[in-house]
């Protein structure tokens, strides 16, 4: 516990005895095996084929652990010192990415690859620090095994997740990304960009004062963002609809709503009313184009239909704001 807050209290790797190096290797293999199991559990519901790959890799780590324990028993007996990553200065640590749900396929595979590379480097360094022939041989063998884990992962992927399965899993992951981030974010961006046009430009043309317009735009944007975020998070927990974490959806919707309104409110920080209004109108066109691009890029909405819907809605709200501001 103390070493967590005072890194200087950790042991230097070069100060470890051969028994302690074996103990550290054993605990590291145990941790990595648990992490691979966690990856498998996190993927099993949505990507069962890929989960089986990590189950197999976890079993591989368990075999490494068994070999290390057998060597420790032969050299030092049954009592294995308690030595973990956090006890050694400069030793790599595992970030708790495996606790995040849902897990991303590509990110999970990348994290596993990084784990294997770090383990390989550890065994190479550990082998150089040992003099016992059997220990040095085992550590060298494990370094080669960790280096070959990438090939093992590729082999297991080809055996357990054929191209058709990987394509299906990729399509499912892409759909989850759309449901959790793109759709709530797009709804927020549209709401923030379009719904705030009327109050911001009505205030601008009614008062002619840039600072007052900015304050109204800021309050409208932040208020709309909070409202949209809470609405998105509260109305659907994602369990039945499969739309993912309500917190993630709420954040995507709330942040994009706020940004959508702030885009054409920020120009009114410029004291000159005509310059600020001209820039704000230009920003509106950029926002409308961005909404159209997202609809076309991620939701396969044809350009013509997307532009008609967005431009028509934005123009009506924009006109309403100007008319009210001149009333």
Q: What brief labels describe this structure?
A:
mainly alpha, disordered N terminus, 2 domains, 12 helices, Ferritin, 327 residues, two-stranded parallel sheet, elongated
Q: For the record, what is the CATH homologous superfamily label of the largest domain? A: Ferritin, core subunit, four-helix bundle
Low-confidence stretches: 1-7
Number of helices: 12
Tell me the name of the CATH class of the largest domain: Mainly Alpha
The CATH topology of the largest domain is given as Ferritin
* CATH structural architecture of the largest domain: Up-down Bundle
Q: What's the end-to-end separation, in Å? A: 68 Å
Q: Biggest sheet, strands in spatial order?
A: 1-2
**How would you sum up the major sheet?**
2 strands, parallel
Q: What proportion of the residues is helical, as a percent range?
A: over 70%
User: What percent of residues are in strands?
Assistant: under 5%
Mean pLDDT: 80
């Amino acid at each position: 516990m103390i070493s967590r807050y005072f890194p200087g209290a950790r042991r230097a790797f070069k100060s470890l005895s051969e028994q302690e190096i074996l103990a550290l290797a054993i605990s590291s293999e145990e941790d990595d095996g648990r992490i691979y199991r966690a990856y498998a559990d996190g993927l099993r519901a949505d990507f069962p084929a890929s989960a089986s790959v990590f189950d197999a890799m976890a079993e591989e780590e368990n075999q490494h652990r068994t070999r290390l324990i057998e060597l420790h028993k032969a050299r030092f007996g049954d009592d294995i010192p308690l030595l973990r990553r956090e006890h050694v200065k400069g030793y790599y640590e595992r970030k708790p990415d495996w606790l995040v749900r849902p897990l991303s396929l590509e990110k999970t595979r990348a994290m596993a690859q990084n784990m294997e590379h770090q383990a390989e480097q550890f065994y190479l360094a550990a082998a150089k620090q040992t003099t016992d022939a059997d220990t040095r041989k085992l550590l060298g063998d494990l370094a080669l095994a960790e280096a070959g884990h990438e090939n093992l992962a590729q082999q297991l992927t080809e055996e357990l997740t054929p191209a058709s399965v990987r394509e299906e899993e990729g399509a499912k992951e892409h759909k989850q990304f759309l449901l959790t981030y793109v759709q709530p974010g797009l709804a927020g961006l549209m709401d923030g960009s379009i719904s705030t046009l009327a109050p911001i430009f009505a205030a601008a043309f009614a008062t002619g004062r840039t600072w007052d317009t900015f304050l109204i735009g800021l309050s409208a944007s932040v208020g709309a963002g909070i409202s949209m975020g809470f609405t998105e998070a509260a109305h659907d927990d994602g369990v039945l609809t499969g739309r993912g974490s309500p917190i993630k959806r709420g954040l995507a919707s709330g942040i994009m709503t706020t940004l959508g309104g702030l885009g054409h409110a920020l120009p009114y920080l410029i004291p000159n009313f005509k310059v600020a209004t001209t820039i704000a109108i230009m920003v509106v066109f950029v926002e409308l184009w961005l909404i159209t691009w997202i609809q076309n890029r991620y939701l396969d909405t044809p350009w013509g239909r997307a532009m008609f819907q967005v431009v028509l809605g934005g123009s009506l709200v924009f006109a309403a704001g100007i008319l009210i501001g001149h009333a």
